[in-house]
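Need residues for this backbone.
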């Protein structure tokens, strides 16, 4: 028999009754039932119930050891009595009557419990992540992650893609988030950078004649952390040659749909092709370019109902040409109490309030200050445009949409949550397309790139030379699922003259572009195919499939919100001799 186990703790069934077996695992839970000691033994594969009689050799030892000690047992598989069968456990029809036991590793007092998974402070969970990972939910999430990545790889290969690796040590880029820098020992005063993404390398692979590339790529960005963002993360990095935007969509949609359908655990998954929503339409309907389509609420511009009179505050706001009034429907939210609650929420968000109209059963008419000023006839026309009637409400924001659209989107989300309109049993996908190529940088009073500087502008060079830069759209696109951006992508700008012109509009001289992106720019001068790609985030995909709201719950060893590894104590100081080798002298900021 094997030194540690003949079976795993999830393998035994009723058909094994009468067999002599050897199991090894962790003591998950102990229960003393009138002299008999029951132990749930756990390993990666499952649980098996063990039975110890007082006369069993080692009984006193098992009675004494703490939970999470590692033991090995030999024993006989027996069928459980009918009243003790556990239908929720794959091994629930049997138990093992232990004949001998050996403690392989005795556990000290635990800093956090494994059984039961009670809430515990994040600091303790991350410092003792090896214990946290033994908990059923987190353990299951990490296994899910592995299976999702395996499924993605198989689906990409089936689509004709091949996996290639790109460098981890590369050059720093002036675009995007802050780089993580790595000092060079051989070239003093110079630094490598960890890749924010393999962007330039995957484009160079296309220039090199490879056709369909993918990689499960590690990426590093020194930016502020959020629940759905980490300093290091993995993405499904994809690039394709001789493709249009629609070709990219057609290649990736079956992969995304298939993976979600495989691991959706009964939830509905949108069929492909996924809905396409232009960026400006997404902002006007949902207040965000990451819309959660499980929420059926769509906002509308209702400025014409208020222009020139009616409700004085809105009429005065609309005297400025760039301003507008947006309505957020609230189906079945037609009560003053609910409207007042939403108004209080808005004030808590730093807003002066949230205007509203609601159906008043007491009056048998539309109520609220806005309705009172507009009058019932005009109010009825407004609410009819919104598709609302008795029992409903609508909420209003006014001003410059560039300033208020984010708040309006948050109000839409809040309404969907409060009114129970958001389904928890579906994955709703969409593409956000037609992003503006440029935006106005108010701080620096100049035109800047809005999304991705390496994207092909729609209309190519002619558009850059003849259009207002703020009117130029790009072949850029995002996949959004349930309000989370899963990836960004673009058809790339593969023509040097167009790239130089685009950077010129954003304030970068040709010499700067040549210096910073010379490798890729020169490559394009020797024959570059039209190409494009995208990069769905692995962590966010698994987070959604696991039903979690924080990516640390699907990462084996995550950093905390301050970017620290509490288990390995990183970042940490290094020895003086290491700094000397790198010709680095620290100039730390003065404390206080």
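Answer:
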């Amino acid at each position: 028999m094997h030194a540690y186990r003949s079976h795993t703790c999830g393998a035994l069934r009723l058909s094994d009754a009468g067999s002599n077996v050897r199991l090894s695992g962790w003591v998950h839970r102990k229960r003393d039932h009138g002299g008999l000691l029951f132990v749930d033994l756990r390993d990666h594969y499952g649980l098996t119930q063990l039975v110890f009689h007082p006369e069993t050799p080692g009984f006193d030892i098992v009675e004494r050891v703490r939970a999470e000690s590692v033991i090995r047992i030999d024993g006989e598989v027996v069928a459980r009595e009918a009243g003790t069968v556990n239908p929720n456990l794959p091994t629930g029809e049997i138990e093992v009557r232990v004949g001998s036991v050996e403690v392989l590793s005795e556990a000290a007092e635990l800093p956090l419990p494994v059984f039961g998974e009670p809430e515990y402070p994040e600091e303790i969970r991350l410092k003792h992540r090896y214990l946290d990972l033994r908990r059923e939910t987190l353990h299951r999430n990490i296994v899910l992650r592995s299976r999702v990545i395996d499924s993605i790889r198989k689906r990409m290969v089936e689509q004709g893609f091949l996996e290639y690796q790109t460098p981890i040590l590369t050059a720093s880029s002036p675009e995007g988030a802050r780089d993580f820098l790595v000092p060079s020992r051989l070239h003093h005063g110079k630094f490598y950078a960890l890749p924010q993404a393999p962007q330039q390398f995957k484009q160079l692979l296309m220039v090199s004649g490879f056709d369909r590339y993918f990689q499960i790529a590690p990426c590093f960005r020194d930016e502020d952390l959020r629940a759905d963002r980490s300093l290091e993360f993995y993405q499904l990095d994809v690039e394709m040659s001789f493709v249009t935007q629609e070709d990219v969509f057609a290649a990736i949609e079956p992969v995304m749909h298939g993976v979600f359908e495989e691991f959706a655990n009964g939830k509905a998954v949108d069929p492909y092709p996924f809905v396409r929503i232009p960026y400006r339409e997404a902002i006007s309907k949902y207040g965000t370019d990451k819309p959660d389509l499980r929420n059926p609420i769509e906002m509308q511009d209702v400025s014409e109902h208020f222009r020139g009179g009616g409700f004085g505050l809105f009429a005065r706001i609309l005297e400025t040409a760039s301003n507008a009034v947006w309505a957020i429907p609230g189906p079945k939210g037609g009560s003053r109490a609910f409207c007042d609650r939403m108004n209080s929420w808005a004030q808590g968000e730093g807003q002066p309030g949230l205007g509203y109209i609601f159906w008043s059963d007491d009056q048998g008419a539309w109520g609220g200050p806005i309705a009172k000023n507009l009058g019932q006839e005009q109010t009825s026309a407004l609410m009819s445009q919104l598709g609302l009637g008795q029992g409903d409400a609508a909420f209003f924001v006014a001003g410059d949409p560039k300033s208020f659209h984010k708040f309006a989107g948050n109000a839409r989300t809040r309404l969907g949550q409060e009114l129970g309109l958001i389904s928890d049993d579906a994955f709703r996908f969409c593409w956000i397309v037609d992003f503006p190529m440029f935006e106005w940088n108010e701080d620096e009073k100049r035109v800047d790139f809005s999304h991705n500087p390496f994207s092909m502008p729609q209309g190519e060079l002619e558009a850059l030379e003849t259009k207002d830069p703020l009117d130029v759209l790009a072949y850029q696109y995002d996949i959004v699922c349930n309000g989370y951006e899963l990836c960004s992508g673009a058809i790339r700008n593969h023509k040097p003259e167009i790239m130089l012109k685009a950077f010129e509009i954003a304030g970068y001289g040709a010499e700067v572009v040549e210096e910073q992106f010379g490798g890729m720019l020169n490559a394009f001068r020797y024959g570059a195919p039209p190409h494009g790609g995208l990069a769905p985030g692995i962590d966010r995909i698994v987070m959604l499939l696991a039903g979690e709201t924080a990516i640390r719950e699907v990462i084996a060893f995550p950093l905390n919100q301050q970017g620290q590894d509490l288990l390995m104590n990183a970042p940490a100081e290094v020895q003086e001799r290491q700094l000397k080798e790198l010709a680095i002298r620290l100039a730390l900021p003065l404390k206080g």
